[in-house]
């Protein structure tokens, strides 16, 4: 299970997500970034993906 708090990357954002896999988490984060943060591309920039991976937690 993966856990991610958007505020760890985007200060002030209170969104938190859980997903079974990293792939699912990145898909959820992409949709969130499009709707909440104005991302206009279909995919996140590599630097944003790296930032998310750096703070994403794995729980058992």
SSE layout and pairing:
Elements: E1 2-5, E2 16-19, H1 22-37, H2 46-55, E3 57-58
Antiparallel strand pairs: 1-2, 1-3
Protein name: DUF1059 domain-containing protein
InterPro entries: DUF1059 (IPR009409)
Pfam families: DUF1059
Uncertain segments are: none
- Main sheet attributes: strand count, strand direction, barrel closure: 3 strands, antiparallel
Number of domains: 1
Q: Into which percentage range does the β-strand content fall?
A: 15-25%
Q: Using the alpha-carbon principal axes, give the shape.
A: globular
The helical percent reads 40-55%
Taking all residues together, what is the mean pLDDT? 95
Relevant terms:
60 residues; alpha+beta; globular; DUF1059 domain-containing protein; DUF1059
């Amino acid at each position: 299970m993966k856990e991610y708090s958007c505020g760890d990357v985007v200060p002030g954002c209170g969104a938190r997500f859980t997903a079974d896999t990293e792939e699912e988490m990145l898909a959820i984060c992409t949709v969130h970034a499009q709707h909440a943060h104005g991302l206009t591309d279909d995919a996140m920039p590599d630097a944003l993906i790296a930032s998310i991976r750096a703070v994403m937690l794995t729980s058992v």
